[in-house]
């Protein structure tokens, strides 16, 4: 090791400028050493802290690996291989944790302790001695100045002795302090070498000991185990790369195929037709929530069907909530003032109505078809989608659109080639054709060239409205639904039966055979198929009032009668064989040229159609019995009138007989001999009176004979 510079202790008493200059160099070196030692101490402290953190983290890792068996992962099952592998890793890491703990202890003793002693003890001692030396030097300068100012003329022994004593004391103190300060600085030149080497030596020895301990613990068995695990990791990584490649290809294919679906407008129907055979569907819809009497808000929620229920679930929610029960419900497209593609779901009892909005028309139609399939309980069958597809396909192939009735009629001619194909599509939706229907042709039931009317306005209502307008008095206001504002005498009276049903008008069409039992199922098939072909889902909801006199369709909002069907004109009424919510009736009405025509009306109800059928049958029975009672009362009245007339005739006959008797008596009296004359002229008077009475008697006799 090269020589070390030292401060000469012999020159401390002289305190020359050269000595002070050399002292300044040593002080600068000490300050630089203190700064460097502080940085080195901070770096070694970080190593020590990191080692302690590594030891704690290793121990925590080992504990977490041991607790893997206690974890319950939602996507991970009981993997025994993974569990045993992690247990072996936990054992190895636990041993490494012990080694790291030993290393931390060695670093604290061999590295941190020497540099801490040098920093806290030796460097602080130098700084303290420097301050003391500075104070002693200042005191010496003050004492020498005071001693130099002693007056030569005024020699005061006491003052002089005090100054001499003060100068002696300060010079001695400065000399001693300087020597100790020089000694500490010279010693620091040796200590700074040991203070830098001892921590590094302790750090290296601790690391070597740690590596030796690790090599003893990690034997060949652990090396084989680590090699096996490394091979497994490589295999998993290879599988991951293959899976990532497949996912990338899938993403590219889906990006190309789903590109038309990104736009909110309806795609091309040829490439993506509406699927009407769904029994389950899910997606985002907007639901209308009422916020006040007239105000409402729309909220976007995720909706899905679960069995026969419609569920909704918001983002962040764990499970969905029930919206409404879809069994026997009704769904139809509705018009909204501020939204498009809206449809409305009404529960079977009509108490709950939900208005939803889809993103496109195709989504709206698919939701309506799916809810209709669920409402028919098709989802309960084994092959739900096949059954739904068959039902919808039958509905689509059932009839042609209403403007093509002439083409259909021409295709029914014997020379037509498509006679067999047309006859094969006569079977009704969801039911087998009856024997009567197999004998009758389509034209025998449904009048050709008759369009299907999907609106509530029907030919009967137009005739009734025309009659009401004609019969209305001038200046009297009539409503647009065919009512004149005054009730008829039959309607003004109290009816025995009043039953109200919630119905939706599906359509009506003119039929030929009003008495056939197959005309209503055939009309149902025609109207449902035409709605499916033309994508007509909107239905007018009304209240059907069944009374003993008539059937009324009442507007639920304004309570105005839209249509009135006299009960005597209702020929027959029946419900669908499979879907009991569908029912219809045939009305025999008078035509424009005096002939009669039959019109079949089809409705959908929230309740069972059999109830409406029973209600109409009960009304007809009550009306029949009422008519019988009325006829009996009229017959009794006629009999009473005949008896009274007979009594009057008998009384007249008796009066005539009395008159005849009176007349005969008068005639007999007139045929007697004349009385003798009197003196006072009584004979003349009597003769004149008798003659006067005889003439009226003859006239009365003739009159009585003529009346008799």
Automatic annotation (TrEMBL):
CDD domains: BAR-PH_APPL (cd13247), PTB_APPL (cd13158)
Ranges of residues in domain PH: 278-376
Positions of the PID domain: 501-636
Biased composition (Low complexity): 424-435, 668-679
Region annotated Disordered, chain positions: 399-435, 464-493, 631-708
Species annotation: Nothobranchius kuhntae (Beira killifish)
Protein name (database record): DCC-interacting protein 13-alpha
Segments of skewed composition (Basic and acidic residues): 631-664, 698-708
A biological process term (GO) from this entry: positive regulation of transport
């Amino acid at each position: 090791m090269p020589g070390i510079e030292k401060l000469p202790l012999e020159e401390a008493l002289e305190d020359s400028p050269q000595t002070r200059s050399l002292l300044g160099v040593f002080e600068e070196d000490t300050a630089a050493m203190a700064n460097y030692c502080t940085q080195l101490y901070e770096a070694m402290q970080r190593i020590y802290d990191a080692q302690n953190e590594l030891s704690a983290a290793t121990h925590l890792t080992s504990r977490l690996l041991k607790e893997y068996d206690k974890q319950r992962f939602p996507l991970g099952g009981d993997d025994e291989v993974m569990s045993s592998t992690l247990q072996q890793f936990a054992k190895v890491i636990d041993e490494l944790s012990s080694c790291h703990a030993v290393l931390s202890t060695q670093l604290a003793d061999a590295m941190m302790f020497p540099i801490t002693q040098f920093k806290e003890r030796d460097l602080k001692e130098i700084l303290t001695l420097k301050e003391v030396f500075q104070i002693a030097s200042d005191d010496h300068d003050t004492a020498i100045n005071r001693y130099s100012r002693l007056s030569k003329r005024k020699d005061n022994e006491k003052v002089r002795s005090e100054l001499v004593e003060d100068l002696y004391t300060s010079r001695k103190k400065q000399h001693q302090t300087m020597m100790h300060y020089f000694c500490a600085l010279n010693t620091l030149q040796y200590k700074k070498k040991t203070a830098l080497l001892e921590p590094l030596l302790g750090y290296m020895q601790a690391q070597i000991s740690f590596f030796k301990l690790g090599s003893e613990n990690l034997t060949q068995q652990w090396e084989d185990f680590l090699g096996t695990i490394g091979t497994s990791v490589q295999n998993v990584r290879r599988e991951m790369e293959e899976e990532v490649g497949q996912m990338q290809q899938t993403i590219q294919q889906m990006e190309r195929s789903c590109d038309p679906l990104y736009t909110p407008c309806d795609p091309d129907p040829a490439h993506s037709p509406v699927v009407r055979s769904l029994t389950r569907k899910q997606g985002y819809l907007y639901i209308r929530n009422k916020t006040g009497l007239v105000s409402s808000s729309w909220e976007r929620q995720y909706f899905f069907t679960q069995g026969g229920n419609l569920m909704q679930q918001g983002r962040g929610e764990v499970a969905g909530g029930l919206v409404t029960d879809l069994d026997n419900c009704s769904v139809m497209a509705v018009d909204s003032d501020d939204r498009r593609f809206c449809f409305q779901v009404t529960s079977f009892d009509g108490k709950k109505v939900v208005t939803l909005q889809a993103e496109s028309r195709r989504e709206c139609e698919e939701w309506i078809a799916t809810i209709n399939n669920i409402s028919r309980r098709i989802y309960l069958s084994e092959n739900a989608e096949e059954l739904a597809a068959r039902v919808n396909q039958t509905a689509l192939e059932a009839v042609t659109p209403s403007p093509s009735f002439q083409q259909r009629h021409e295709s029914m001619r014997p020379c037509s080639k498509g006679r067999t194909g047309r006859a094969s599509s006569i079977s009704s939706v969801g039911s087998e054709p009856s024997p009567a229907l197999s004998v009758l042709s389509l034209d025998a039931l449904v009048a050709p060239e008759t369009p299907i009317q999907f609106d509530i306005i029907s030919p009967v209502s137009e005739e009734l409205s025309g009659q009401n307008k004609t019969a209305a008095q001038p200046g009297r206001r009539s409503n647009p639904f065919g009512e004149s504002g005054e009730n008829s005498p039959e309607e003004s009276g109290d009816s025995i039966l009043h039953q109200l049903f919630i119905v939706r008008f599906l359509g009506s069409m003119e039929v030929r055979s009003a008495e056939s039992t197959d005309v209503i199922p055939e009309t149902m098939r025609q109207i449902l198929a035409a709605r499916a072909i033309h994508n007509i889902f909107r239905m007018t909801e009304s209240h059907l009032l069944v009374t003993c006199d008539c059937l009324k369709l009442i507007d639920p909002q304004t309570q105005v009668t839209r249509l009135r069907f006299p009960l005597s004109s209702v020929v027959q009424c029946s419900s669908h064989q499979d879907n009991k919510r569908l029912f219809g009736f045939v009305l025999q009405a008078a035509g424009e040229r005096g002939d009669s025509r039959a019109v079949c009306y089809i409705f959908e109800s929230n309740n069972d159609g059999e109830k409406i059928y029973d209600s109409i049958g009960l009304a007809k029975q009550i009306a029949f019995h009422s008519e019988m009672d009325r006829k009996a009362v009229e017959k009794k009245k006629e009999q009473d009138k005949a008896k009274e007339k007979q009594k009057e005739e008998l009384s007249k006959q008796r009066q005539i007989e009395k008159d005849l008797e009176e007349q005969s008596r008068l005639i007999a009296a007139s045929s007697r001999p004349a009385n003798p004359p009197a003196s006072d002229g009584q004979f003349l008077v009597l003769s004149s009176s008798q003659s006067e009475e005889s003439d009226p008697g003859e006239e009365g006799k003739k009159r009585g004979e003529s009346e008799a």
